[in-house]
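Budget justification note: compute hours in this period were largely spent on complex prediction jobs such as the one shown. Inputs:
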Amino acid sequence: MEKLNLRQQKGLETKNRLIDSALKVFSAKGFDASTTKDIAKEAGTTDGLIYHYFKSKEELLWAVVDKHSLIPSLRDAADQTDPDVPLESLLTKYFGQLLHRLNEKTDLIVMFFGEAQRKPQIREYLVSLIEEGLKPLYFLLKDRTALNEEELRLAVRNIQTAMVMYFLLYDRFTRNEETRESYIHTTVQQFLKILG
Amino acid sequence: MEKLNLRQQKGLETKNRLIDSALKVFSAKGFDASTTKDIAKEAGTTDGLIYHYFKSKEELLWAVVDKHSLIPSLRDAADQTDPDVPLESLLTKYFGQLLHRLNEKTDLIVMFFGEAQRKPQIREYLVSLIEEGLKPLYFLLKDRTALNEEELRLAVRNIQTAMVMYFLLYDRFTRNEETRESYIHTTVQQFLKILG
Amino acid sequence: MEKLNLRQQKGLETKNRLIDSALKVFSAKGFDASTTKDIAKEAGTTDGLIYHYFKSKEELLWAVVDKHSLIPSLRDAADQTDPDVPLESLLTKYFGQLLHRLNEKTDLIVMFFGEAQRKPQIREYLVSLIEEGLKPLYFLLKDRTALNEEELRLAVRNIQTAMVMYFLLYDRFTRNEETRESYIHTTVQQFLKILG
Amino acid sequence: MEKLNLRQQKGLETKNRLIDSALKVFSAKGFDASTTKDIAKEAGTTDGLIYHYFKSKEELLWAVVDKHSLIPSLRDAADQTDPDVPLESLLTKYFGQLLHRLNEKTDLIVMFFGEAQRKPQIREYLVSLIEEGLKPLYFLLKDRTALNEEELRLAVRNIQTAMVMYFLLYDRFTRNEETRESYIHTTVQQFLKILG
DNA sequence: TATGAATGAGGTTTCATTCAT
DNA sequence: AATGAATGAAACCTCATTCAT
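Corresponding output:
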């Protein structure tokens, strides 16, 4: 591996701190309303340093996107689900995991939805993210349903986007365990009917 | 009513033009990245005039929200749906209307979702909008399903938020009639299973 | 003509003041070392206003070039010279006028020579300026010399560029009438030999 | 002399490389628009190192001036000219050498003319350079002309500054041998008339 | 009502310079 | 000797807002 001396190591930490701070600030205020000073302050440095590590504020945004990719997180939600259990508990567990992961990545997701409406690159990334996010559930279900491929794909997309919306507009503000469980329970029941 | 002389009338027109232009620009660039000059140009006037009609750029945003309420539009989607027809065609028609209305109000909706993540007032409005938007479908269905109130409410919310998401991420970019109809068709089929 | 109200007239004055101030500052410090604040201060306004009238600092530079064109000034130097007088006094008068004009436009010329070495557009303008500047003397002489066209052109260019150099490196710092007259006198004597 | 160990030797090389790189960059962009990073990159090091060898960017400029004196180069132009040959070929050869030397030192000369207009120290150096540069030709000619000292001095200055101007504005961009030879030829013919 | 000149605060970005390693 | 992380001042530029006309 590369040898980094102490100085360089500290530099790398600073760079990472800048990315993390940027995520926090961007998601709180939106990209445009976030100032480089905000971000630097959050990271405990000065704004000039941002330009030592990134070409522009925009590039910092992309560094945030790169570092905090959601996809691994989404895949985990499925991996941690045992495929031998009954569908109902499988789905309950999966959706529980999903909302859990979304909550862990609240900042990032909020930022994505805020910027996606105007930055096409972000929107494309978001769409690919969702497509990617559908796969785990799709593969979990494709051998256990009467729906054909097309139908299953749509069912999975609908249920999952509905859940993201639920997260964005309700769950992340209440963070109430009971409400969430009840929501998941009922949603699973109804989803099972679709799967047949 | 007060009678407006010619000058006042022209003024009112200008004010309305400013609001409409603001909607267009806000939805295209986001509130923060929109400049008063952008808006004025779009309206065919000069930026100074904005401050004759509105206290600030922020106030102009609220004027946009006030003027372009989505609720009537959503209600229409249900009103134009005859309650005596079979559920399937009723839902097909309703969802068709819904996507149609969303497309008509693309600018507004995009703006709402862009700003809702950071302006709490906008988020609250968006939530209330969605709650309001659920009512027509809820009332259309409540006497024709085996689901209890709670279940129906959730089912309606899930299906409808899924559809808004579909609109935001896909439909508004493709605007392909066939794809949309196919989407609606399959979604309705699956929704019918939930309604039982 | 266009009607300008008082406000617009004042605005035009401000714009012109900005251009003149820019010339002063650019020629004193060079383009790169001149700050927009410097220029604004010199003009008695604030730097923001520069961008009301000009797209960028660079565009302000071009506005300076446009407004303070040297060519009319150069042409005048010849126009004021009566073609019926003996060559010697004609040349003496012409060169006197030339140095006089150069002194009047010191700022501009110094700026040109400073920037021409790196801004190709400025260099081209400078070259065209010099070519243009040669014409009056050329037309004054072409019927009164044994030189052919080619030779005369070169003679005129050499003598005139030498004079500009003299101005740039000596005359503009001493501004001593006697020295200048003596320089002109001897130069004319030698130039007459060339003309034959 | 002091003996330099390997490390010191390498250091000296680096310092020289920095000076040469600075010359290149300064002449290309001008002093103000040149960054320490530019210079360091050109030299294959990092900007911090400049401050190990020089107090400031300005001091580096003076180091450039010190190292790259033009005077020896100018003197060479005369030294390589045999005084026994006819004036015409002598002058032809001398001016050929002069343009050749100027081309060799393009960077330096361009930098001088760019900065001379605002840095008085540079201007003084440039003037002294020109005065110095006139001497070789003056001494070459003083016994072979009817002109008195004063007249010869002026003739030499005029012809030589004209030639520098020719170099700055034309020759260095075209670098066309034929054009240059033709220019020199005609110029020499005319200069001979002055010398009488 | 409408214009657009003017302001001033503040944003992104650049850069000479310092300094720990 | 050499690196490059870090600083902080200042540059260019943007823009909401005010206001005289």
